[in-house]
Amino acid sequence: MRMIELVDVSRSYGGLTKVAALSNINLTIGAGERVAVMGPSGSGKSTFLNLVCGLDQPTAGTILIDGVDIGILDDDSRTRLRRERIGMIFQTFNLLPTLTAIENVALPLRLNGMSRRVAEPRAVAMLKRVGLGGRLDHRPDQLSGGERQRMAIARALIFEPPLLLADEPTGNLDSQTGDEILDLLDQLHGELNMTILLVTHNEEAIRFCDRLVRLRDGRVVNDEKMERGR
């Protein structure tokens, strides 16, 4: 089963002088796969991720997410797709500073109309699942970087999405904490069997993935299966 499919996808920016961020990308990612996307700065990684989650639109080509052509969706439908089908983890965590861990993690459920009485116990269970059972009422500024990333992971997975997108999830962490976050994602993948698309500069992330896609100058220059534990 295909979770992500890009067919002849290109994205250009600019007016008279256009700059190609991505050029004729053809890529298929199956359900349950863990794929690392790597490349130097300016290779198109961020554009690639923004297209897959529907925050940006391709100049040409088709993008299918779990069989849905996101190019034909209106803004509200794309937002609904992200809320219901795509979990997202960011390098900068993107947590709301005035909310507790429970409130941050419950937020996606609350935005989908779930009552606090139902949403918050689910948030507590997910926070315990990622090792933050002792930090339920803490705000982000009361937590370490690794704990904030665990909170962000709990928020991204609170509705158990089939697709998880992670943008440099270890980028702001020291190497030991980054390894702990990768191990946590590995554990959660085994429990939830979601598809994970991981955009990263961290070569250590390769050991966590089934496949490595390298971008350069907006094109796929390498796509290979990885040996686990490498």
Describe this structure in words.
The chain has 230 residues and is of the alpha/beta class. It has one domain: 3-Layer(aba) Sandwich (Rossmann fold), CATH 3.40.50. It is built from 6 helices and 10 strands. The protein has helices spanning 45-52, 75-85, 101-111, 116-129, 145-157, 175-192; strands at 2-13, 19-30, 34-38, 60-65, 68-69, 86-89, 163-167, 195-199, 211-216, 219-225. The strands form 2 sheets. The chain has a 6-stranded mixed β-sheet. It has a 4-stranded antiparallel β-sheet with strand order 2-1-4-5, with helices on one face. A hairpin with a 2-residue loop joins strand 9 and strand 10 (219-225). Helix 4 (116-129) packs across helix 5 and helix 5 packs parallel to helix 6 (175-192). The longest helix has 18 residues, at 175-192. The protein is globular and about 50 Å long. The two termini are 26 Å apart.
Separate helix tally = 6
Radius of gyration: 18 Å
> Element order, helices and strands?
EEEHEEHEHHHEHEEE
Helix proportion: 25-40%
CATH topology: Rossmann fold
Number of domains: 1
The CATH superfamily title = P-loop containing nucleotide triphosphate hydrolases
> What is the CATH architecture annotation?
3-Layer(aba) Sandwich
Distance between the termini: 26 Å
Counted beta strands: 10
Shape: globular
Helix-and-strand structural type: alpha/beta
Assign the CATH class: Alpha Beta
- Approximately how much beta-strand content do the residues carry? 25-35%
